[in-house]
Amino acid sequence: MEKIISAAPSLAGPLLRLHFHDCFVRGCEASVLLNSTDGNMAEKDAKPNKSLRGFGSVERVKAKLEAACPNTVSCADVLTIMARDAVVLAKGPTWPVALGRRDGRASSAKEAADHLPPGFGDIPLLTKIFAANGLNLKDLAVLSGAHTLGTAHCPSYAGRLYGFSSAYNADPTLDSEYADRLRTRCKSVNDTAMLSEMDPGSYKTFDTSYYRHVAKRRGLFQSDAALLTDATTREYVQRIATGNFDGVFFKDFSESMIKMGNVGVLTGAEGEIRKKCYIVN
């Protein structure tokens, strides 16, 4: 992992995101890594997953593990450990990862489209999706802090900049000066080439500046802005945004990641240990 992140520091966010997107669909059982087959469109080809990256890095780590210790470490465990290490190498907290997850044998693009928390989500929708995975409102506020790492393609937030509603061209909950700046990078809703940093100025470093942006109405997604619309999540954002509670956030993030990493896991005789992460045995 040190080699991977030192060669490509911008991969920390995508590797963490792979783990998130795995756990929210069928639980943490590496279904997000499976390739589509003739009769089945897999999760990785679902619209919300089109921009996932880091599959090659996971395969490289898995191949080394298979060479050293065949049929022992699942792809689900590899993904969970890599996400934790990506955070650590981006100067974030560490946490213990329990091992013994098994890999699932099914993967569905439709399930991914139905179950992943969307960037346009409001609090009621996000709460429902998180609750379905045993995660609460605090976990939502805490895990949103993962947006301190990584970038987003223009179409994932352009709806906030252009033709937002019949009353507003731009999302009124977005700071207008920041919206102007985003428009210079993202020329239209169909601008697929352009990337924006989700935590401008420190998108390769795991820190609390994401919360300062959100508190100033400069969160990139509607789901970031939504954190200010609920008393519980707003209080959390404003507290961490002061910069006086970085240790609290790091501890909270570790706890929420442990919870998320245990969602819907397969153990014992369930599932399998894939030899290659992109194909079932």
From TrEMBL:
**Annotated positions binding heme b:** H147
Which positions does UniProt annotate for Ca(2+) 2 binding? T148, D199, D207
Q: What class of enzyme is it?
A: oxidoreductase
Subcellular localization is given as:
Secreted
Name the residues annotated as catalytic in the UniProt entry.
H21
* Alphabetized UniProt keyword annotations: Calcium, Disulfide bond, Glycoprotein, Heme, Hydrogen peroxide, Iron, Metal-binding, Oxidoreductase, Peroxidase, Secreted
Alphabetized Gene3D superfamilies for the sequence? 1.10.520.10, Peroxidase, domain 2
Annotated InterPro entries: Haem_peroxidase, Haem_peroxidase_sf, Peroxidase_pln, Peroxidases_AS, Peroxidases_heam-ligand_BS, Secretory_peroxidase
A GO biological process of this protein is: hydrogen peroxide catabolic process
State whether keyword Oxidoreductase applies.
yes
Q: Which Pfam families match?
A: peroxidase (PF00141)
**EC number of the protein:** 1.11.1.7
> Which top-level group of life is the source organism from?
Eukaryota
Q: In what residue span(s) does the Plant heme peroxidase family profile domain sit?
A: 1-281
Cofactor detail note: Binds 2 calcium ions per subunit. Binds 1 heme b (iron(II)-protoporphyrin IX) group per subunit.
According to the UniProt entry, its GO molecular function terms are:
heme binding; lactoperoxidase activity; metal ion binding
Got any disulfides in this one, which pairs?
A: C23-C28, C75-C277, C154-C186
Q: Which reaction does it catalyse?
A: 2 a phenolic donor + H2O2 = 2 a phenolic radical donor + 2 H2O
Q: Provide the function of this protein.
A: Removal of H(2)O(2), oxidation of toxic reductants, biosynthesis and degradation of lignin, suberization, auxin catabolism, response to environmental stresses such as wounding, pathogen attack and oxidative stress. These functions might be dependent on each isozyme/isoform in each plant tissue.
Protein family:
Belongs to the peroxidase family. Classical plant (class III) peroxidase subfamily. Belongs to the peroxidase family. Ascorbate peroxidase subfamily.
**PANTHER family (UniProt xref):** PEROXIDASE 25-RELATED (PTHR31235)
Protein's name according to its UniProt entry: Peroxidase
Source organism of the structure: Dichanthelium oligosanthes
